[in-house]
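Hi all, posting the design record for the shared folder.

TITLE: backbone redesign
STEP: 1 of 1
STRUCTURE INPUT:
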């Protein structure tokens, strides 16, 4: 299914895949992924790549001793990630591990056609200082075929964070439908509420009267209500709070995310979210948000 997005609903029985590289950020990703796998009663697969990224020209020649050291380092990273995962989620998710010498980005994008969700750290520094995981998170959120969870400095799986709601960005188009669906499911499984945020202005964050203000706001509220129609009946256990704001999408999401445990956004949008997602503003959101974020591609 290369070249096509894969609906997360079609991957319910597939594993969650988390990439680790020995960095603190990637271990946070492993912890979050383990809890996510336990919530969805699916397996967790932990992968690390020991490939050495080279510039143009002949590749680096590695001795048997070098390769042996790399294997040992990879095994250490996988063992620590497994320990972290079990500490976070107990013995509930079935955990498998894999070490590869293939480049991590194309490997993850290829695997994304076969897994339920891909989880990465927002940045990291692994063996051989193979580069910031920020490049991995950027590439996967742009090109993966499944939802991608990006875990930042905190995994938000502690007891206090676990009581916070899920936040979803809604732009009033079909592009945000997969994000809304996944957000409702996440909130239901976590037994928390859901904040549905619609940013209907891209020019100001000031709530001041302007010509046509009331009509524009009413139209935005109607768009949001239409986007959420039917989901409340499907997930009656999820208490939904609607938020309509006249602000730039990234700023409004960042402000609202301060009291949430998870942010869910679509892969791209228009209307209130015209300047994001996976453009320059979404990159700012990816690297500025402190809580875990899931990017969901439209089908």
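Okay, here is what came back for every position:
SEQUENCE:
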């Amino acid at each position: 299914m290369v070249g096509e997005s894969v609906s997360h609903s079609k991957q319910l029985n597939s594993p969650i895949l988390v990439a680790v590289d020995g960095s603190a950020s990637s271990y946070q990703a492993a912890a979050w992924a383990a809890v996510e796998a336990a919530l969805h009663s699916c397996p967790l697969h932990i992968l690390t790549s020991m490939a050495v990224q080279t510039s143009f020209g002949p590749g680096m020649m590695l001795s048997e001793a070098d390769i042996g050291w790399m294997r040992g380092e990879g095994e250490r990273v996988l063992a620590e990630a497994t320990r972290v995962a079990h500490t976070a989620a107990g013995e509930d998710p079935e955990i498998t591990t894999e070490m590869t010498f293939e480049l991590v980005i194309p490997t993850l994008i290829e695997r994304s056609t076969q897994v339920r969700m891909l989880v990465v750290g927002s940045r990291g520094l692994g063996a051989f200082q193979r580069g910031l995981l920020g490049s991995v998170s950027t590439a996967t959120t742009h090109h993966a075929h499944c939802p991608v969870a990006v875990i930042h400095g905190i995994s938000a799986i502690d007891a206090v964070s676990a009581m916070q709601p899920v936040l979803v960005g809604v732009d009033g188009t079909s592009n945000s439908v997969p994000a809304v669906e996944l957000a409702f499911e996440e909130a239901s499984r976590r037994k928390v509420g859901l904040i549905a945020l619609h940013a209907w202005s891209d020019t100001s964050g000031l709530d001041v009267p302007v010509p046509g203000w009331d009509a524009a706001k009413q139209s935005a509220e109607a768009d949001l209500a239409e986007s959420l129609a039917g989901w409340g009946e499907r997930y009656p256990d999820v208490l939904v709070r609607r938020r309509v704001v006249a602000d730039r999408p990234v700023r409004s999401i960042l402000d609202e995310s301060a009291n949430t445990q998870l942010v869910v956004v679509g892969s791209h949008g228009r209307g209130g979210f015209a300047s994001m997602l996976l453009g320059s503003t979404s990159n700012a959101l990816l690297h500025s948000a402190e809580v875990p974020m899931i990017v969901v591609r439209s089908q």
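COMMENT: The beta strands are 16-19, 44-49, 95-100, 117-121, 148-151, 166-169, 194-199, 240-245, 262-266, 293-296.
Let me know if anyone wants the other runs.
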